[in-house]
Amino acid sequence: MGNYETPAEMVARHVSEGEKHLAHQTALIERLRRMGLPTEEAQALLERFYLLQAQHEEHRQRISEECEFGLRDRQGNLLPRRRQRQKR
Prior knowledge:
The chain has helices at 7-34, 40-68. The chain is an all-alpha fold.
């Protein structure tokens, strides 16, 4: 994380970095295969990366929806909750 990044910037970075990890791990598995080396552990790690990537993408979607509903500002920061008046 930089000096300061908004929640929206952070989740965008996580998604971007996750895509790079997936590509790198996929290439590594292919290299291992071509060399005739075992790929089971690398494949298991790739599956974990896919699960993490799905979580990052779900987080990005949730922040986007919360912005649409007025729960977050454009940068993805949570807005203070408005108190509802109690009916008497």
